[in-house]
Specification:
This protein is an alpha+beta fold. It folds into three domains: about 140 residues, Roll (PH-domain like); about 90 residues, Herpes Virus-1 (2-Layer Sandwich), CATH 3.30.40; about 100 residues, Pleckstrin-homology domain (PH domain)/Phosphotyrosine-binding domain (PTB) (PH-domain like, Roll), CATH 2.30.29.30. The chain is built from seven helices and 19 strands. It has a seven-stranded antiparallel beta sheet, with helices on one face. A seven-stranded antiparallel beta sheet has the order 16-15-14-13-19-18-17, covered by helices on one side. Strands 11-10-12 form a three-stranded antiparallel beta sheet. The longest helix is centred in the N-terminal third of the chain and has 24 residues. It is globular, with a radius of gyration of 24 Å. It is found in: Cytoplasm. It comes from Aquarana catesbeiana (American bullfrog). One of its GO terms (molecular function) is guanyl-nucleotide exchange factor activity.
Amino acid sequence: MQIQYSLNGHHEIVQPGRVFLKEGTLMKLSRKVMQPRMFFLFNDALLYTTLVQSGMFKLNNMLSLAGMKVRKPTQEAYQNELNIESVERSFILSASSATERDDWLEAISMAIEEYAKKKTTFNPTKSQEETDPEEEGDNTLGTKAPIWIPDGRATMCMICTSEFTLTYRRHHCRACGKIVCQACSTNKYSLEYLKYHLARVCDLCFQELQKQDSPSTAKSSSPANHKSPSSALSSVLHSIPSGRKHKKIPAALKVCASTEDSSMSGYLQRSKGSKKPWKQMWFVIKNKVLYTYAASEDIAALESQPLLGFTVKVVQDESTELKAIHLLHKNTLFYIFRADDANTTERWIEAFQEGTVL
């Protein structure tokens, strides 16, 4: 009852059988910035709100636990983050620490599990194999809101690798959440989670959504179900030169920054010498090769450097009181790297050392 009274407007939060489990403030990642949100977890729903005045909150959304998924991000660099996926909304949350993140992960996971068990118990005619697709979490494209990749985590189109600029802007695919350019997202499709309203989708999702439609549905569907430009218009859009920076990417650099089978990945500061400026970049060590990226979701590297033949020297950085990693080739300094904390530094040292030996 106290939570209901603290919400602006008329909201029926109190429901028979609804049990309060946990509350707390987490940062919710929008396209560009982190924003604080107050979360309330119940045994059947997750609420998130915005503080409007002392003790009062504006209800932003109430998400059912049916079909919800919660998981850690695949990239270790975002160790405080949590991915929430539900039919209505999907987003990234950030806690103040990995411990707080793990507490929320456990609480939400257990609530989802108990909710699914309760639904099965109240419907004994259903076997475990016949559980409702909504409860299992339907992974069919277009049935769930995707997590939008934040703008700052991609500097290029995630399909064609064209660079984004002030004039050549980012667009989000409403089906998969990837960041794409205008030329790679000229189509619209009616998506189930948007109640079949038309929404911008990338070229890859447009093709997949068409495949999902059965032949009979595709023949009988009205033009309103999906919308694509004429082939002539599409070719014009792909050939528009204004602001588009598209360059040929060598095969050796076509390695995604978010690759899951890397030895180590994350942001590091890099310098070419003790008196040279530092620049933050995203680095990946994979198969004893160091890849350099402008951002963590770019699908092509800026540079690749095989590490075999290099040596690693660890030096105390007086300015930060952390260790700096010197990468040397034939005793000549090649690059200096430094991380944000001691634990991450040690893991990078180990990854570099493993990468430089057979």
